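Minutes, project check-in

Agenda point 3 was the complex the collaborators sent over. CS summarized: three entities, 875 residues total, and the question is how they sit relative to each other. Sequences were read into the notes so everyone works from the same version.
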Amino acid sequence: MTEPSKLPHRGVPEHQPAAGGIAARARAAAGPQYLSGLNPEQREAVETLDGPVLVLAGAGTGKTRVLTTRIAHILSQGRARPHEILSVTFTNKAAREMKLRLGQMLGQAVEGMPWLGTFHSIGGRILRFHAELVQLKSNFTVLDVDDQVRLLKQLLQAESIDDKRWPARMLAGLIDGWKNRGLTPSQVPSGEAAMFGNGKGGKLYASYQERLKILNAADFGDLLLENIRLFRENPDVLRQYQNRFKFILVDEYQDTNVAQYLWLRLLSQAPSRPGVPLSAIIPGAMDPAVIPGRAAGVNPESGDKEDSARDSGFAPAGAPRNDAGNPVAQPSPPKNICCVGDDDQSIYGWRGAEVDNILRFEHDFPGAKVIRLERNYRSTGHILAAASHLIAHNEGRLGKTLRTEDVDGEKVTVTGSWDSEEEARAIGEEIEELQRAGENLNEVAILVRASFQMREFEDRFVTLGLPYRVIGGPRFYERAEIRDALAYLRVINSPADDLAFERIVNVPKRGLGDATVQLLHDHARKRRMPLFEAARAVVETDELKPKARGSLRDLILQFDRWRAQREVTAHTELAEIVLDESGYTEMWQKDRSADAASRLDNLKELVRSMEEFENLQGFLEHISLVMDRDGGAEDEAVSLMTLHSAKGLEFDNVFLPGWEEGLFPSQRTLDEQGRAGLEEERRLAHVGLTRARRRAKLYFATNRRIHGTWSTTIPSRFLDELPSANVEITESKGGSGWGGAGGYGPSRFDNVESFGSSYATPGWQRAQANRNRGQAGRSGQARGGFEEGQSSFSGSRSDAFSGGGFSRNKRGPLVIEGELVAKSTGTVSEFSLDDRVFHQKFGYGHVVKIDGNKLTIAFEKAGEKKVVDSFVERV
DNA sequence: TTCTAGTTCGTTTTT
DNA sequence: CGAACTAGAA
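CS then shared the predicted structure for the full assembly.
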């Protein structure tokens, strides 16, 4: 421990001068206070202000600290004023965090940093200033995925393409992918464009863009792509921003996609002299001869004949040309851009992130200074060693060696379980043990590869009464009720918002179904008017049935009234009025389902959040970009999330279940991305391990239910790749809740034994051996059908039950089996509606529906479930 | 138009 | 095994 100020097991030290000791005071004397406590590399990263800088910041090395300190440094050195610094992150959370820390550091609010934000929010901001230059109005709507898909469905219909064979969602994905790669419709390689909808992919993309302009809307991808187009077509505008931004900082650079890269590239060029054509700048951003994967985005007009060459990654090596086909001039030297990232944490390749961006930084930004942060202030020795050793199996990386001065700590544990349920049980018990030992549950996290793994843990925790919180999941503004409410407001704000109108015409139900909407569409198309105006016209005719006509007229009148009220009513109040008068609130109040209450809460929250904005317009402009999930949840609880959403977080105790071939690494990724996919999965594993400060615990199960059927699995190859010196194989403690027996087949033990000795052998080789053993032990698999609950009643299962699979099962008490079989034939329920009941697994709830012996119960914690009456008792 | 019974098909997710 | 969607009846 040579760093006296370091706090063991904590994140990067927060240096209070008082706690710093002599050394810290000495350092403080050497420079401004905010620099004190930085290690030499961090300090270099902060102080190297001129020219391009790449900071390779390994996990837990103080990345955010460097970024914020650097901004503080720039400001305090007087090198730039706050509005001259462009600082981009990927998530709102990261942006918020930076603002917060910056505020602390500078001792005041950072309202003066208007250009600190996400790529999308900044892109959107710039776009609004110059909307007319890209055929939009400054109040354009940002579409969510739902709207996008709905719009595409219409286009598919217009082209009479079977949306069974060519789902709109798929097209949305393709378009999104193209936009991520910086490709406008004319730039998409025709081979690729033709793959969708019998060659109509490209045409659809083009008409989609056209429709967006008509609707005065942009999707997320447009916020960047249209920005790039804006810059390309308007050199003066670009120059304005180039001049403004004296410094550019980028967080999580390894996650940037091509569009983001291009955007940064444009902005980071030194301002060109007036008169120098833009073509001198742009194409230099990409050099097809060197960046095969990007070639498609480079030579937009270079002709379709080269498609095959591009697709195969071998673009012609001729001089790059710009949009006009002119030869490329030497690009001006890039200015002060500082990118921070970690190639070992690039886990969004499947979404268009280009690891290449970070790998090729030095090439892209000549003269770049590369600074490595390798001192880890987070994890103990064993954990760090395990993570480093694992990631070292990757080839495509810049290479960093993380080190810590912390103690070795506990070894990383690997535990095998019979099946996923036992895995959940084992983890549950270990967590309770930690809790008894005085650990704070906020310092416990379970990180899973796929979200379906979460349910098992939730069930278990509800049973145990262990508080937990699921991180991630649907965002606040993605929830149906929020989108519906927003749609109402959108229609009020801009009557031409067809997508919003369509969303709510029949929500709540007004008897205005497909037929009516279709009619409106026809009208709108013929007269080239928005749906809302079409509706106004149609109501005057007798084309609609009286009932539909009446309610449509009512709806229009309501909107007219609301729009009038808008002038005289506060926007929050207006929102309440709209939600009430439209019957939307009532719809949820009448809804008997379990989450209706929380939806109403969300609506209240939405209205509350509107207060932060001056008016409806301002609210709508920002809402789709910055609205985050509800924060809340201050209570002590275990965190449950996917590995992806764990990036950037840290916990004392991290549980990593499901390390099995097929699940992790995910088979699908392997199939689709091959080796690159495997490496990304490995980085994911690395991210998982490095989330842990003191304890990292890995698990694998021998049997797991995938898509409803049980299958035998084999331990993940990543387990084999861990250094045995830092790993401990432990027994599963999960056997208890099942009345003893808890034994596993010998197979599991063999697994564990062989694990320690064979970690040098290729994983899959051992996998073969294990597979055989696994099948031998399959007799126990009937267990799958043994799960309690509704499933038991869905078919001919009684044969399976009596068939004897069970008597061989050592793990379940036969009593339950007998009970299950016996009760399942009963017909008359002894329960009545609204009875309060208790269920072993789901806890308390009340009966909302009775169907023979099947009850639908709204559980207080687990939500609404169908269960068999024999599994609950009245209380 | 809407409700309900059948079918399908299963990563990861920001903005 | 279930959520999420789709095709027919009320």
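Noted in discussion: The two ends of chain A are 59 Å apart (CA to CA).
Follow-up: revisit at the next meeting once the mutant set is ready.
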